[in-house]
């Protein structure tokens, strides 16, 4: 189906918005009146620019407060409308959006509303324009889509139809009964469809709409379910994103437009429309790659964690460290000094690496050059929104290129005891890309987003959200930090699973590693919350082990010191615990802030 985006959803000048929409592959736009008013371009120039960019102007909006008015007020409203229709002729837009009135003068009189909308539609038809009437969730008397449809139906005018907006509909309740009325609207009377999602917040609906809308798949509404119903009603017009969002208003238009199109592609797939190649969710983490200007400090930590340097890349300064199935690449290639050591890439074990890459590309993920030396295994890789390189790998699977073929054994043997594997990776996201990152990991990589949690840092608030496979074989925790200058909040980490965190912590110390010290107050509180067997709490206190518990089971974890932007965590999950110790994160962050300055990080 044709796709569109409202100019209000993107930042910048009208020209910047149009360019971004076109580059991201949209077929057209809704032009917001304010964007036109603020533009130095004439309507004819905007029309020409859109044509050059391959964009259709599907809609001009909004026209406000025109229906159910006392006659003395309706006359000037019609005069306003005539001006807009002339302007739309110059712009080349043939559909106008009329929002339900919020005017204190509007009367609670459906017959009057229908009559005036009909007169407005008569005027519009004279200009070759159609009127799409939208119920704002906070409309004075008309605030639901079914009420708007009753008025439009009774007006019975060929140039008058409804505009359905998922936000206004779903913010007022999205039960199947609430949505049943959509099937009663003939498809050809649905003149326009606007799509937006939103996080489920309990707040004033106007504020919610104007500041917190997001692209479908980024919030809590069942936008796909709504789209299915609208399609079943016979709607064939464009699918148009209309998102009012404080973050998008400040972010670069280009990436936002790509995020928007990816959202729409994923939504179309969920609603059963033609879709990109099917997802092939990863089955494990093949490796995590650290980029560092100096391999020594990170090698020391890995050695103390029981990793062995088992292989070296044949053509690049990259070491492979292994312990059990946990594999970490240490790359001393060109690192940016500012970041020091950082987590630069993730290898995902993929059932179909080439298929996964094709899907990623179809969903607009930047495909990375393979940087192949002669004889290297062909590796498929794309960039995540935060710049992390994501490789689709096959490890030791016959018939598929094996990334390890590029490595030469050093002869050192990896330890296998203690169930070591990568439990999860934690990646910090730029503050304005948090929702985009969750959508990317879901749509492109086929991971399932878990609940978003807020974590108090001494110097700000972090948001954190895990994206995982259902079996937990791949767990990536996305976090968005406090101030961009706050290094602690922007550290990334690799969590290693162990079946005995106490033994692993002791072994790390014995091998010369350091563990993050946790304040005594934490353990005093833990003693009040839970009962532990004799001596256990003292062990945790001594080693800096943190503890959490839920209905499923227990979670014990501790942390190494930080190298550059990276630290390691040792975790022990028992009884199917699925959390990440969110309750302990504020204590951990405070301890890391306290430790900064004398860790050499
Ligand atoms: O917030 C508003 O006023 C507004 C305007 C136009 C729309 O299409 C809409 O959904 C909301
Ligand atoms: Mg709308």
Automatic annotation (TrEMBL):
Q: Which key words are in the record? A: Isomerase, Lyase, Metal-binding
Q: What is this protein called?
A: 3-dehydroshikimate dehydratase
> Which Pfam families is this protein grouped with?
AP_endonuc_2 (PF01261), Glyoxalase (PF00903)
* Enzyme Commission number(s) of this protein: 4.2.1.118
User: Which Gene Ontology terms cover its molecular function?
Assistant: isomerase activity
From which organism does this entry originate? Streptomyces olivaceus
Residues that bind a divalent metal cation = 134, 165, 194, 242
The free-text function statement in the UniProt record for this protein reads: Catalyzes the conversion of 3-dehydroshikimate to protocatechuate (3,4-dihydroxybenzoate), a common intermediate of quinate and shikimate degradation pathways.
């Amino acid at each position: 189906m044709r796709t569109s985006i409202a100019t209000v959803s993107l930042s910048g000048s009208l020209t910047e918005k149009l360019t971004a929409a076109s580059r991201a592959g949209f077929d057209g736009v809704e032009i917001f009146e304010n964007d036109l008013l603020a533009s130095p371009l004439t309507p004819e120039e905007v029309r020409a620019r859109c044509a050059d960019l391959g964009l259709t102007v599907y809609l001009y909006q909004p026209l406000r407060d025109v229906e159910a008015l006392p006659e003395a007020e309706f006359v000037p409203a019609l005069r306003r409308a005539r001006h807009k229709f002339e302007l739309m002729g110059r712009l080349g837009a043939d559909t106008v959006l009329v929002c339900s009135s919020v005017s204190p003068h509007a009367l609670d009189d459906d017959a009057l509303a229908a009559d005036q909308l009909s007169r407005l539609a008569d005027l519009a038809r004279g200009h070759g324009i159609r009127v799409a009437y939208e119920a704002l969730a906070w409309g004075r008397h008309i605030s639901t889509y079914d009420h708007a449809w009753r008025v439009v139906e009774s007006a019975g005018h060929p140039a008058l139809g409804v505009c359905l907006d998922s936000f206004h509909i779903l913010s007022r309740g999205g039960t199947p009964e609430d949505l049943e009325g959509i099937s009663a609207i003939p498809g050809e009377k649905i003149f326009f469809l606007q799509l937006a999602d939103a996080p489920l917040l309990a707040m004033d609906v106007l504020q919610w709409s104007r500041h917190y809308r997001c692209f479908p798949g980024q919030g809590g509404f069942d936008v796909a379910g709504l789209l299915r119903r609208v399609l079943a009603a016979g709607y064939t017009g464009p699918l148009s994103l209309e998102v009012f969002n404080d973050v998008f208003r400040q972010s670069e238009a280009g990436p936002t437009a790509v995020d928007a199109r990816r959202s729409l592609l994923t939504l179309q797939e969920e609603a059963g429309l033609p879709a990109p190649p099917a997802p092939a969710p990863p089955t494990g983490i093949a490796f995590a790659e650290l980029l560092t200007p100096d391999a020594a400090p990170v090698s020391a930590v890995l050695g103390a964690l029981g990793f062995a340097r088992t292989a070296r890349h044949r053509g690049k300064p990259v070491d492979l460290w292994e312990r059990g199935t946990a594999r970490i690449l240490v790359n001393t290639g060109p690192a940016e000094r500012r970041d020091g050591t950082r987590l630069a890439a993730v290898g995902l074990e993929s059932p179909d690496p080439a298929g996964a890459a094709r899907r990623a590309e179809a969903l607009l993920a930047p495909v990375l050059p393979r940087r192949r030396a002669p004889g290297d295994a062909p590796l498929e890789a794309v960039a995540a929104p935060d710049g992390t390189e994501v490789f689709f790998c096959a490890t030791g699977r016959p018939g598929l290129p094996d990334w390890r073929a590029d490595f030469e054994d050093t002869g050192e043997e990896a330890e296998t005891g203690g169930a070591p594997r990568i439990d999860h990776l934690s990646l910090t996201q730029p503050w304005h890309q948090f929702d985009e990152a969750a959508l990317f990991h879901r749509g492109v990589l086929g991971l399932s987003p878990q609940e978003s949690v807020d974590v108090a840092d001494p110097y700000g608030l972090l948001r954190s959200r895990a994206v995982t496979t259902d079996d937990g074989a791949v767990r990536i925790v996305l976090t968005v930090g406090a101030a961009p200058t706050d290094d602690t909040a922007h550290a990334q980490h690799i969590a290693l699973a162990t079946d005995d965190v106490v033994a692993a912590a002791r072994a790390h110390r014995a091998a010369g590693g350091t563990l993050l010290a946790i304040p005594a107050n934490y353990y005093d509180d833990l003693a009040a919350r839970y009962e532990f067997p004799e001596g256990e709490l003292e062990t945790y206190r001594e080693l800096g082990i943190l503890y959490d518990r839920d209905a499923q089971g227990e979670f014990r974890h501790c942390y190494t010191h930080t190298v550059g932007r990276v630290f390691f965590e040792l975790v022990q999950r028992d009884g199917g615990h699925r959390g990440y110790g969110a309750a302990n994160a504020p204590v951990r962050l405070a301890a890391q802030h306290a430790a900064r300055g004398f860790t050499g990080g």
